[in-house]
Amino acid sequence: MRSDLVYSASLQVENRFLLSTIVMRAVRTLHINSTRTEDTANSVLAEVARGRYVQAEMPEIKALPAIEALLIAPAA
User: Do residues 29 and 15 touch, judged by C-beta distance below 8 A?
Assistant: First the structure.
């Protein structure tokens, strides 16, 4: 059952890492202690599949600083 939910949610969010981040954050926000975490995750996946909680975007990737050549003296 959950694999069907994940598949239908992945149709809305193609990047699986972004999908897992969206689902984890929504579960943490919406979870009620008296319910099972699995039920909360299932309902979040169903809502993502319907098109909710999809406003997240990939962050800008910062350019890494250039690495200077290593100055290691060769062993003699």
Answer: no
Which residues are within 8 A (CB) of 44 and not within 5 positions of it... i.e. 6 or more apart? 23, 26, 27, 30, 53
Q: Is the pTM of this model over 0.90?
A: no
Q: Are the C-beta atoms of residues 54 and 12 closer than 8 Å to each other?
A: yes
Beta carbons of 12 and 48 less than 8 angstroms apart: yes
Calculate the CA dihedral of residues 18, 46, 25, 3 and round it to 10 degrees. Answer: -60
User: What is the phi/psi pair of residue 17, to 5°?
Assistant: -75, -40
Q: What is the pLDDT of residues 34-71, one digit of tens each?
A: 889 999 999 999 988 988 765 656 567 787 776 665 55
